[in-house]
Amino acid sequence: MFLSRCALRAHKIVSQLGFCSKRSTEIYQNSNSLKLNSQILIFSRYYCVQSERSSDTLNHESSPTKIFENIDYESIAGSDEETLTKLKRLILEIDLLYESGEQIPSNLKVDQWKNLLQLNTRSSRMKHLRYLFLIEKKKENRYVRKLEERAKRLERYENLPVNDHIEYGLLRNSMFHRIYEKQMNSLYNYRLCEAMLYGQDIIIDCSYDGHMSLKEQTNCAKQLLLMWSYNRFHKDPFNVVFCNVNREGTTFKRLAKTIPTIDEPTFPLNYTEKSYLELYPKEKLVYLTPHCNELLKEYNHDDVYIIGAMVDKMKVEPLSLAKAKREKIRMAKLPLDIYLDWKQGTKNLTINQMIMIMADLKIDNNWINALRHIPRRKILEDNAYQRKPVENSNKLSAKKIKDNFRRNSVYNLLLKKS
């Protein structure tokens, strides 16, 4: 029913715009043409009960298309007979899941097939397929919203009153030069190049691929992309150095897929397979880990800080603490308990949040200002990061709230009156 509604909405929008599209995944072939075409969007897959529609509304195929039509067996399995047999079993398993109405993506790429072959249990494969299915639905919804916004924008400008004098505005005349995205990228890349020459170094330790699941590795690649993007926009960015990089690992492959120009000589990103012990003196290195007892009281511009590229949602283990002790490197953790009232749960932060905090802390050593990047859902009070630091005895915690509620409850008041 969901795809039926999406198909009707997309067909209505495309009919208004006059685009010619044969499939839901095709982009506009001729954006200048505004003639109404009889061909419409065709959605031929159903994930629940197939809706009954007349043939005049949507001319869809009578039977759903097969999801295993264009599988590149040579790229997935190669000449390995064992892998080919395992792939055929996997295809049969996914086909049974699809026929039983499970949430299965309509198309799987070569790397996605390889990732599924690495999963050993059926439940893990089902979770990963559902994850890919949700990503596919998000892309389809984003495509439909894009069409809706374009239709509204064109309708709004077409309905504007026509004036005899010069009109200024979007899609009209303008007295200013337009700043294109390419020019902004050149400015941000110039800042990163300047940071490589004169800025402060910060290290991202990418040696934790073996301790993360496939989903966690994908999430780690997204956080690394967000981290690099925020550092690029900052007014005083770091010189980010990726150390212990495994080019064949899932994390780096996903990162390189989102940044296709990562290997170009002019691209402002440094990564190496070497360890940070080979690049920097050991006495200058400080490993930021939430499991140690030493607090980072203020930012030191002479130190080189290390952030572990790790996402540990499934199991929280002190891997960074063990590695820092094994390599005999100084350790420090952010003083979160001094300045914030946390809710119940772990105090682990994402990689992009860590780079946000360290970038602002580098400017003025103001923890109150730097900790504003922590999500408010993790803090007990909405404005906890804005107030001055207080003593631990006066801080408001979840336990104190619970005790105060019990102490001032109606039941206790009645007992006191009696």
UniProtKB/TrEMBL annotation:
GO-annotated cellular components: mitochondrion; nucleoplasm
Domain called SAM-dependent MTase TRM10-type: residue spans: 188-381
Keywords: Coiled coil, Methyltransferase, Mitochondrion, S-adenosyl-L-methionine, Transferase, Transit peptide, tRNA processing
GO biological process: methylation; mitochondrial tRNA 5'-end processing; positive regulation of mitochondrial translation
Example GO molecular function: tRNA binding
Localization of this protein: Mitochondrion
Membrane-spanning intervals of the chain: none
Entry-linked InterPro entries: MT_TRM10-typ, MT_TRM10-typ_sf, Trm10_C_MTase_dom, tRNA_m1G_MeTrfase_euk
Protein's UniProt name: RNA (guanine-9-)-methyltransferase domain-containing protein 1
Organism in which the protein naturally occurs: Sipha flava (yellow sugarcane aphid)
Gene: LOC112694129
